[in-house]
Design brief:
Blueprint: H1 19-32, H2 39-44, H3 50-61, H4 72-85, H5 89-93, H6 101-123, H7 125-128, H8 135-144, E1 150-152, E2 157-159, E3 169-171, H9 181-199, H10 201-210, H11 229-232, H12 240-247, H13 249-253, H14 269-283, H15 290-297, H16 304-309
Parallel strand pairs: 1-3
Antiparallel strand pairs: 1-2
Helix pairs in contact: 1-9, 8-12, 9-10
The protein binds a DNA duplex through residues 2-3, 5-7, 14-17, 35-38, 49-52, 54-56, 58-60, 68, 87-90, 101-103, 105-107, 109-111, 176-177, 180.
Length: 314
DNA sequence: AATCATAACAACCGCAAAGAT
DNA sequence: TATCTTTGCGGTTGTTATGAT
């Protein structure tokens, strides 16, 4: 006999939360702060298990959460980070302000995985069948192999692969569905907490520990890695070779990993440690991923937007 | 208009790590 | 140190909405 589920008690409600339940939960957290979830159902009268309450708060009711409509920038971040970290959704979420791990995970599973698969198919049907190739490896290999493709997800037209084409472009114009109508009501509930988040020391502490860092304006290419000049000329690669030089393993392996490259004052300590830890784990078995790491950890503030637009494969 | 298929995403489950006692 | 409790995480499922036939 296995372990009984946490919510199998008689009278424990499951399924979608109602606005009324949300209000009860938010009101309670507004007063007591998040945490001690075990006592929440008891103290609020909610017929929910503690886990459900925590999840509802974390994924929906918590202030500052952005729902739906992932920007191309965010898509790029997710793809890069997934390639770098794997399915560490919590770690990935820590780099995306206002997004929850659940949201990112769902978006990856329902959107990005398909897009990448489609892109893989367009470039190399054989690679597309290989389930263990990460997006990063795939992209790297593709460009190392000097294969190019034009791919427009928006029109669902995949023009495979003119091997003589000079430019690679993949316009993943996201086609996110509109947010559920109920989402807007949770936004309203979240707004109720804004004043509380500003005024309560307890809430402030919570906010700092949970809210992700606004890294977009603070990281970019490290000093050692010069951004392509075409970036300054409008955010496009001038040639396939230039693009390839950014993405190929050969080039990346020339960039030595150095913990000191993490030393941006702007980067959250935990994020640094996460990446350092991940890096150590991978370093023995895999080629360096220094490019992406430097891109994530570097100091060229304000260039990230441009960087994300440069490799338009994503 | 009805039915079926697919997409999107909210929520649950079980495991593991961290923290408390 | 050992045990118990709490929390966090990732995989998976269930429900609803939307589109196609």
């Amino acid at each position: 006999m296995g372990r009984p589920p946490c919510c199998d008690k008689v009278g424990i409600k499951k399924g979608p939360w109602t606005p009324e339940e949300d209000i009860v939960l938010v009101s309670y957290i507004q007063e007591h702060g998040p945490g001690n979830w075990r006592s929440v159902p008891t103290n609020t009268g909610l017929l929910r298990c503690s886990k459900s309450c925590r999840l509802r708060w974390t994924n929906y009711l918590r202030p500052g959460i952005k729902r739906g409509n992932f920007t191309p920038h965010e898509e790029g971040m997710i793809i890069h980070l997934q390639a770098l970290l794997g399915n560490k959704w919590a770690a990935i979420a820590s780099y995306l302000p206002q997004r929850t791990d659940n949201d990112i995970k769902n978006y990856w599973n329902t959107h990005l995985k398909k897009k990448i698969k489609k892109f893989q198919s367009a470039l190399d049907p054989k690679m597309a069948t290989s389930s263990d190739s990460s997006a990063y490896q795939f992209v790297s290999k593709s460009f190392s192999d000097r294969k190019t493709a034009s791919f427009d997800i928006n029109t669902s037209s995949t023009t495979a692969t003119d091997h003589h084409a000079s430019n690679a472009s993949l316009n993943l114009n996201h086609s996110c569905s509109t947010s559920a109508s109920y989402a807007s009501s949770t936004e309203n509930i979240s707004r109720l907490l804004e004043g509380w988040m500003r005024s309560s020391p307890k809430a402030e502490k919570f906010h700092q520990s949970n809210n992700t860092l606004e890294i977009f304006g603070t990281v970019g290419m490290s000093k050692g890695n010069t951004a392509p000049k075409s970036e300054q000329e409008g955010g496009q690669f001038g040639s396939n070779e230039e693009f390839e030089s950014i993405l190929s393993f050969d080039n990346m392996s020339n960039i030595a990993w150095d913990k000191s490259s993490c030393d941006s004052d702007h980067l959250h300590h935990r994020q640094k440690e996460n990446l350092v830890h991940e890096r150590k784990e991978r370093s023995e078995n895999e080629p360096p991923l220094s490019f992406i790491e430097n891109w994530l950890l570097g100091e060229n503030g304000g260039q990230v937007e441009e960087m994300m637009e440069l490799p338009q494969i994503f």
